[in-house]
Amino acid sequence: SSALVIPTHARNLTATMDRDPATGNDEQPTRRLPDSDSKPFDSPPASPSPSRKAFWAELAGLSVLVAGLLGYAAYQMVEEAPVSVSAKPSPKLSPKPNRSATKPMPTSDRSGAIAGEPQEIYLRAPKTGIYYAVDSLLNASRREIASRSGRFCIRIVNGPIAPVSGYQQVTTSSLSLDSSGTTIDATQEKLTFDHAYTELKDAKGRWQWLGDKVDRSGVMEQCLAASTSFVKKTRGDFINHAEAAPTD
Question: Which distant-in-sequence residues (6+ apart) come within 8 Å of 187 by Cβ?
Fold first, then answer.
């Protein structure tokens, strides 16, 4: 019989295949890895990427900052002296009151209240405005009362009595209010008022309230701005009763 001839390339393929002893089947050819000693795939270690370098740099900077803050806080705690429990802050002392100062007055509408003063004092506050004489002989005279922030002042205008002519004599004075009433600081004279506070009476006569328009400039402004008793005398207008007298 003729012999079977196996090509050379087929013999090489068969040689590279192993037969499984259990099944008798040929196993698939396997590629043999190189020995560990040869290390043909070894390569130098890769250097860190730029992003990783930046991360570690920021982490190092943050650590330094935190350490600095902790150190500063510890320094402040050491520097602060412990507060003694028995130590008390010194109280702020009020200045001594000026006993000669005029007491604060209630407002002109007598609706306000001043702490420490009886209620009846508020009701005795004079009504601000201009008061003219009830007696016609005193038509060249008048009384003016003004107030500001609880302080009261009076302008006393005394003119010549007809038929005599002359200058008006003006006295501007502060007023004091207490439980006994309203006092003119210049003369220590008490003023009395009717129940409606539209009429006042002094040593000169009776005066009727006729308006609230008071000139607060000049000496009156000085009196309202002062904080103590105020008295000032000046000369007013010249009154010529001869010109005002009726002719036949």
Answer: 173
- Using DSSP's 3-state secondary structure scheme, residue 67 falls into helix
Distance CA(199)–CA(208), nearest Å, equals 5
CB count, 10 Å around CB of 147? 21
Burial class of 49 by CB neighbour count within 10 A (0 to 12, 13 to 18, 19+):
exposed
Q: Locate tokens 């702490």: which residue?
A: 115
Q: Say which residue the tokens 């196993």 belong to.
A: 27
Give DSSP secondary structure letters for 185-221: TTTTEEEEE-TTSSEEE-SS-EEEEEE-----STHHH
Closest CA to 237 of 114, 152, 153, 142: 142
Which of 192, 187, 229 has its CA nearest to residue 207? Answer: 192
Residue 22 has pLDDT above 90, yes or no: no
CA dihedral 117, 122, 128, 131 (to 10 degrees): -110
Single out the residue of 157, 136, 133, 118 nearest to residue 208, CA to CA. 133
What does the block give as tokens for 13? 């393929």
Give pTM, 2 decimals. 0.52
Task: State phi, psi for 209 to the nearest 5 degrees.
Answer: -75, 125
The pair of three-digit structure tokens given for residue 1, joined into one six-digit string:
């019989």
Q: Which residue has the tokens 């600081």?
A: 185
Reference 147, options 106, 183, 208; nearest CA is: 106
User: Helices marked H in 32-118 — which ranges?
Assistant: 50-79
Average pLDDT for 140-161:
94
Mean pLDDT of 72-79: 68
Rounded Cα gap, residues 214 and 47, in angstroms? 97
> Is residue 92 packed enough to be buried (19+ CB in 10 Å), middle (13-18) or exposed (0-12)?
exposed
